[in-house]
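A quick aside before the break. I want you to see a complete sequence-to-structure record at least once, exactly as it would be stored in a machine-readable document. Don't worry about memorizing anything.
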Amino acid sequence: MAAQAAGAPSARRAPYRFPLRLDTVVHREFPAGNVRIDDAFSRRHFADLTALYGVEARPEVAEGPAGNTFADMAAALLADLTDEPADIGLAVVAHTTPDLDCRRAAVTCLSEVIPGRPLVFTVADCGSAAPFVALEAAGAYIERHGHRAAAVFVLDQATLPYRTGRYLAGDAGAALLFTPTGRAGSLTVRRTSGVAADDVPAAVRASLDELGCDPEVPAVLSPGLRAARDLPGHRGPTVSAPDGFPVSGVLGALAAEIGCAAPGRESRRVVVDHDPDTAELSVCLLDQGAP
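That is the input. The structure line, written in tokens, reads:
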């Protein structure tokens, strides 16, 4: 887990509008899976891994209930996302925890279950900013190669046989499908690096202003944020993502908000995520009314 140096200057990026429209977003929490990591290879793998970093292994976790690999979760989310995966030319997997079993990979799985030899890659080691980094990376590939449909998979898993210093609540994932005429709206991402906790309110306000968010826009907040403290002057409704799902939580909360939106309600939603470990601030505006 990377740490931002204290006092590092804030690095600002221009707002990035995703080149395709969001068509569908799905979210799922997974019960105990069917993959175990208590075999001889896994025990040796995790013993070597933890020894490299001076971390104590927790064999009792490996001996507990079976877990879910990112490959299994991605395949399930793909089935929820679309009945026509053949149109997807690009798929990106984003995560911050490592996968359950290093012998299986979500990118390999998706390259096999999505017809037509799609381009598939992973974004990791970005903390809770991983979904937003993935969106920027996916957008760059779409602009370069002209993909007509793309999917982003955001995955969390909690079966780790060593201590991470972070609360993990379980296995979950979200998936987003983008098309030229997506019915859910247009996404614009604004990321800022080097934002310490004390600087969050000012940085959030600046990002919302750049995105054209008025104070009434409904907001989805990452677990560590508080509307009264971190969204100065905000008057719209807010929803807090559940704790323990570092990358999929905010998108799961956004999916729920979209799903329960009634006709005539505010056509925009803003997602605000701050990772105190990496000092990354990510703000994402979904505008259902934008062309």
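Two observations worth writing down. The longest helix spans residues 130-145. The radius of gyration is 19 Å. We'll return to this after the break.
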